[in-house]
Amino acid sequence: MRQVVLSLLFWLGLTAFGYAQPTNGADIPPAKMTRKERRALEKEQRELDKKVADARAKRAAAPPLSEREREHTEALFVEGVKHVLLEDYTKALEQLQRAYALNPDNAAVNYKIAEANLLSGNLRDATNYANAAIRLDAKNAYYYLLLADIQVRQKQYDGAAKTYASLIKQVPNSGSYLFNLADLYLAQNKLPEALSTLELAEKEFGQVDEVSFKKQQIYLKQNKLDLALAEGEKLIRANPNESRYVLAQAEMYASNNRLADAARVAEQALRADPENPQAHMILAEVYRQQNQPDQAAEQLKLAFASPALDIDERVRILVSYIKQLPNPKESVNQLARDLAAATIRTYPKEAKSYAVAGDIQTLTDRKKDARDTYLKALRYDNSQFKIWQQVVWIDAELNQTDSLLVHTDRALELFPNQASLWFYNGVAHLLKKQPQKGVKALEHGRKLAVTSPELLGQFDAQLGDAYHEMKDYIKSDAAYEAALVSDPNNVQVLNNYSYFLSLRGEKLEKAKQMSGKVVKQFPDNDTYLDTYAWVLYKMKDYAGAKAALEKALQTTKDAAVIEHYGDVLYQLGEKDKAVAEWQRARKAGVASNLLERKLKDRKLYE
């Protein structure tokens, strides 16, 4: 019967002594057990010890287990193990506790009860039974590993370290667990303990890459650069063709201003792999620190020519250049563009390639190229709102109204809740002389902008212009007033509102106050001076209007301003001079549709 039971255990993939791989808790921040928690744990342990002692006494007073009782104990154990596998921990513990009652000195039973408690979240009982398993069989590594895992989960790192130390001391051929112990010390930032543990591992196993690498990291944390570099050189000697060790050493030299050594080690990497992009980038950094920009640029170009340089690393480097742009040195601007172009060549179907290239072109004043590059990015990923936003901004800045309308329409299909897209769509319609469509877009977008006072003011400013175009002056004035509530110093609104009021001959005092405020801020701006002059003209302050226009004419050749100056002169009785100015306005370009009548009749028409 015993043979059948052991066969079943083997079939289940377990033995009475089996356990999972060890964990080291390296991702859990250190913490210590409180005094209260320690007392509670000690109490639990005392209760378990008493329970075990009672069970042993009872077992000692009883006759030895019969063959049938032993078989029953093993059957209960197997049944408990089965339920652990099925993750039914309640039934597992029920069976295992019955086995324990029959044979409390069985280390495997204590171990499995500990494991079931751990998996069900009862860490205190898990701790007690794991300790019991170790006391009953101090030579089984898995019992220690289970206890250490339980302790780590309770953030009892000192206890877990002691458990690993006991495992290494008590269990033959367990030196490999020195690495687990070292990781546990590193997780607690106990660097001297970790270092001494790694040195023990090195004595037992000889030079191991993992040991050297971890020792190097410890030395760096301890600011022992020479020792860290020595470990790196040891790694390189043992693995001359392992580029990651060579490059890590080169980067360490470079970051600590050991530029000659950094170049030496990077060139060693290039001898093994002439196209290694990381080695070229290290050399580029060395040349940069040595103030040799041409050589640094050449190394970067070689790095970017390598298909092995992944796109995310390329983007990271290009973003560092973006932060420097626009640069007074055109060579820097050109290098950024060249690296971006190389990225596109290597990753021609990656939206990120085009997006970062577009950013660089934007910042180096290649806006039309940037707009086209952004559009290519959108071919491969049209879900990026920021790229659509860049396209729309450039359309607006370049005054390309048709493109602005097309691109805002396309973007709004994807992002119908973005107020800024509705704003530019409305502006495009206004520029296309479609005020009704413009108002519809702007009114819709305005509802989406209620949480942004600044954007709300921009909507109101455009709506003021749009409603004026539609001759809906009540709504136009209301929109302008709302815009001024958002920003009382909005120059565009103050100028346009006052000018349109002057054209209508309404609220002229208000128009004068608003226009005067703008002129005071921009005393040499010919557009604002012309508005102010026209308000004064409507108020019959021709002398004031003349003075403002004469100042404007010092910097402008705008036909409308010149025509206005002629009108003022006519009102002041200087008819010949007025006609001369009207003639000059005709030559300057498009003025008002009344200009030809004025010239023909040598008379003012309004």
Question: How does this structure look, described?
Answer:
This protein has 606 residues and is mostly helical. It contains 33 helices and no strands. The protein is elongated and about 135 Å long. It starts with a helix and ends in a 5-residue tail after the last helix. Residues 1-32 have low confidence and may be disordered.
Q: Helical proportion?
A: over 70%
Distance between the termini: 119 Å
How does the overall form come out from the CA principal axes?
Answer: elongated
Low-confidence stretches: 1-32
Tally of DSSP β-strands: 0
- Helical segment count: 33
β-strand amount? under 5%
Quick overview:
This protein is mostly helical.
Considering the chains and any ligands shown, give keywords for the structure.
disordered N terminus, 606 residues
